[in-house]
Design a protein that fits this description.
single chain, about 575 residues, mainly alpha, Growth Hormone, Chain: A, two-stranded antiparallel ribbon, 22 helices, 8 strands, disordered C terminus, MFS_trans_sf
């Protein structure tokens, strides 16, 4: 049975589908919360070496005087200020002033608590020579996201979208709460790795479940909703962080919203399309009947058999030819045919770059001129507007052209921001927001594009492995920001060039707007030969539509000709 025929009967956007879109969209809010959390949980406040007690050496002076005597001045971020990593050896045992310098490890650091009461940086002293550990913690989270993409992608294709989704939500709550009570940095990083894995698993299992349950005309709407709610999560995170200034309380607060989402288990059915492809006809029929009941559509066993009979074909001997869907598909099928190799390579390049630049611009809001909280909320608002723009352009122009156009917008914005002098900070912030606008549209478009271009039998594997590869970009993105220590504009220059490369990578892919979802790699090969995919089967009468075919011709070709003639 071709599920597109069922969707036509049930309605592309009935009550069940509308409810499904809302619930699956809501599960992406915690994903946004966890993804952006390190912006505040690992915030770096102003700091300097701890000032020793001056009175013990016979001195009696105010704190500013003690700072002037204890901390050397140097250029910090282009301005002259107190050193963050060095101190004077103020006095020797005889009370004489000693102007030689040493590091802060002996007495530790003092942190400005006017903006952040605590963060993992202040708790574990992740500054100066230990600053790389902060970036490593964020990279470990991204590595978890990548690992989750492939592990839960395989799980979703093997055991189902629904089971994978609910398992990931339960683990997301468990690991998220546990991370708030981490006794050390290693435990925190390990738990954040797991949070990243299950968050990504929940997002893409839900995304694929929704894509497979809707008709072609509603996929863009659903894709935009799934992209919109993480941005809403960023907005909520900025507001939460403004009022919750202790990192462990913030980690706990952003983990608890997953709890009510566990109730969705009783309101969401397994993907009927996946059940049909997995040869679970009885479960597929029950899932379809449940959807029909919610939508108020009659779906009797006779209707099921009628639609099921539309796709039956026989060879010259009167036997049903074996289906390609009966075999087990694996990650090897992503590169088995020429078209799939092209799709997989182009998607991997585009995803890797998009993720690298996207998360770099999110995490880099703390480096922009102005209040950190205001900049973060402003960036979230820019992204929300960008998603609505993406919604419009994808509906009118498809996926391919908007992605290319707005990746170039992001690239040009980043290159322009890199050329702005430091004293024009407001202009640099504006251009950086322009880059955020372009990359948000590109990233959102790419998410829908990937779910449509990979065939059903390997859709979760394809999206999952592309997501895993893309997390290499997420892993390296924190360290690209460190290039500013070599030359301040260098990170933005790198982002600008990468965005242009990503735009060029997808020029080899087919447009998927409005087409029926391909079920097998062979469907994609047919699309590459400029043949449209079969339209949803429609039976002209109550009889079973059986067409004899020659053994020398493929069943797929005969079905296509059969349906086209109806």
């Amino acid at each position: 049975m071709d599920y597109d025929a069922v969707v036509q009967h049930l309605g592309e956007f009935g009550l069940y589908q509308r409810r499904l879109v809302i619930m699956l969209s809501l599960i992406t809010i915690p994903a946004g919360l966890h993804t952006g959390a390190m912006t505040f949980i690992a915030a770096i406040p102003e700091h300097h070496c701890r000032v020793p007690q001056m009175t013990s050496a016979g001195f009696n002076m105010t704190r500013p005087e003690a700072l002037n005597l204890s901390i050397p001045l140097e250029v910090v971020d282009g301005m002259r200020g107190f050193s963050r990593c060095k101190r004077y050896d103020v006095a020797d045992q005889f009370g004489w002033l000693n102007r030689s310098t040493s590091t802060c490890e002996v007495d530790g650091w003092e942190y400005d608590q006017s903006q952040y009461h605590s963060s993992i940086v202040t708790q574990y002293d992740l500054v100066c020579d230990r600053a790389w550990l902060r970036e490593m913690a964020q990279s470990i989270f991204m590595a978890g996201v990548g690992m989750g993409g492939i592990i839960f992608g395989l799980m979703s294709d093997r055991v189902g979208r629904h089971v994978t989704l609910m398992t990931c939500l339960l683990l997301q709550l468990t690991f998220g709460v546990a991370a708030a009570f981490s006794p050390n940095l290693g435990t925190f990083a390990a738990l954040r790795f797991m949070v990243g894995a299950v968050s990504n698993g929940a997002f893409y299992s839900g995304f694929v479940l929704g894509i497979e349950s809707l008709g072609p005309s509603k996929r863009t709407t659903f894709g935009m909703a799934m992209c919109l709610l993480p941005a809403v999560g960023y907005l909520i995170l900025g507001l939460m962080a403004y009022y919750i200034r202790d990192w462990w309380l913030l980690q706990l607060a952003l983990s608890l919203p997953t709890l009510p989402l566990l109730m969705f288990r009783w309101f969401i059915s397994e993907s009927p399309r996946w059940l049909l492809v997995a040869k679970k006809s009885d479960k597929a029929r029950k899932a379809i009947e449940r959807i029909a009941n919610v939508n108020g559509v009659d779906f009797s066993p006779e209707t099921f058999e009628k639609l099921n009979g539309c796709t039956k074909v026989r060879n010259d001997d009167g036997e049903t030819p074996p289906s390609d869907r009966s075999r087990k598909y694996s990650i090897v099928d992503l590169v088995r045919t020429s078209q799939m190799r092209k799709i997989t390579l182009a998607m991997n390049v585009a995803w890797l770059i998009s993720v690298c630049v996207y998360y770099s611009l999110i995490l880099g809001t703390s480096q922009l001129v102005g209040d950190h909280y205001v900049n973060f909320v402003l960036g979230a608002c820019v992204e929300i507007v960008a998603i609505f723009v993406a919604w419009v352009v994808m509906t009118k122009w498809g996926r391919k052209r908007p992605f290319i156009a707005f990746m170039f917008v992001a690239g040009v914005s980043c290159l322009a921001a890199a050329s702005v002098p430091r004293d024009l900070g407001v202009l640099a912030t504006t251009l950086a927001m322009g880059g955020r606008f372009g990359i948000s549209i590109g990233f959102c478009t790419l998410t829908v594009y990937a779910a449509e271009v990979f065939p059903t039998v390997i859709r979760n594997i394809g999206v999952g492995q592309a997501s895993m590869v893309s997390r290499i970009g997420g892993v390296v993105s924190p360290f690209i920001g460190l290039l500013s220590t070599v030359w301040r504009p260098l990170p933005l220059l790198v982002y600008g060039v990468l965005c242009c490369v990503a735009g060029m990578a997808v020029t080899v892919l087919p447009e998927t707007h409005g087409m029926s979802l391909p079920n097998t790699p062979e469907d994609m090969e047919r699309i590459a030969r400029n043949l449209s995919t079969p339209s949803p089967p429609k039976c002209p009468d109550e009889t079973e539509h059986v067409v004899p075919i020659s053994k020398s011709r493929s069943a797929a070709t005969t079905i296509y000709e059969m349906v086209s003639s109806v």
